[in-house]
Amino acid sequence: MLPDLLNSTKNKMDKAVKVIKDEFTHIRTGRASTALIDGLKISYYSVLTPLKQIANISIPESNLIIIQPWDKNCLHEIEKAVWKSDLGLSPISDGNVIRLSIPPLNEERRRELVKLIKGDAEKGKVAVRNIRRETNDLLKKYEKDSSISEDECKKYQKEVQTSTDEYIEKIDKLLELKEKEIMEV
Questions:
Q1: Inter-axis angle of helices 2-25 and 107-144, to 10 degrees?
Q2: d(CA 149, CA 143)
Q3: CA–CA separation, 86 vs 164, rounded Å?
Q4: Strand order in 55-61's β-sheet?
Q5: Which three-class secondary structure string do you get for the chain?
Q6: What is the C-alpha to C-alpha distance for residues 178 and 100, in angstroms, rounded to an integer?
Q7: What secondary structure, in 3-state letters, does 101-148 show?
Q8: Which of 31-35, 59-63, 107-111, 119-123 shows the lowest mean pLDDT across its residues?
Q9: By C-alpha distance, which of 23, 20, 26 is closest to 168?
Q10: Using one digit for the tens of pLDDT, what is the confidence trace for 77-135?
């Protein structure tokens, strides 16, 4: 019963860290990355379809993304989706492919992005702490119900705190790496 609770707690904390990783991959750093446009959905024959299902996406240079749709009829829809997105990129079409040039970030924008990722990291830490609190509340409930002893409760709470510290450290490392990536010129 209790080992399952601890495993469940760690799984939830893993998911919280994964969400932060995913958030960080979608933040533009001045370098081309397919992760920037992974979330784009295109109206393909009136059905919202992920871009990667209707086009080949490549990165021939560090500041250029090329989108080559398999069906040339959807070029206009892809362009429209890029314009509507909050990526701040201007698609350039030659009738066969769409080029997305990634402009270098200015200092002000870099600082804004760092603030943004710090906020995301803090949300992740709060999520991890909330998971800890929920688990500790369950442990106290088990102790109150006499399912576990007071010593067992304290032992498991200590394990939960150790896990919490580990996951918060992981988030801090992710933040440090992303901040370094954003700030490098």
A1: 170
A2: 6
A3: 34
A4: 55-61, 64-69, 98-101, 91-93
A5: CHHHHHHHHHHHHHHHHHHHHHHHHCCCCCCCCHHHHCCCEEEECCEEEEHHHCEEEEEEECCEEEEEECCHHHHHHHHHHHHHCCCCCCEEECCCCEEEECCCCCHHHHHHHHHHHHHHHHHHHHHHHHHHHHHHHHHHHHHHCCCCCHHHHHHHHHHHHHHHHHHHHHHHHHHHHHHHHHHCC
A6: 22
A7: ECCCCCHHHHHHHHHHHHHHHHHHHHHHHHHHHHHHHHHHHHHHCCCC
A8: 31-35
A9: 20
A10: 889 888 888 777 788 888 889 998 888 778 888 888 899 899 999 999 999 999 999 99
For residue 185, name the pLDDT band (cuts at 50, 70, 90): low
Give mean pLDDT, residues 28-57.
83
Nearest to 51 by CA among 90, 80, 12, 13: 80
Q: Which token pair is 28?
A: 């533009």
Dihedral angle, C-alpha 102, 33, 127, 165, nearest 10 °: -110
Residue 65 backbone zone (phi > 0: left; psi -120 to 50: alpha; other: beta):
beta
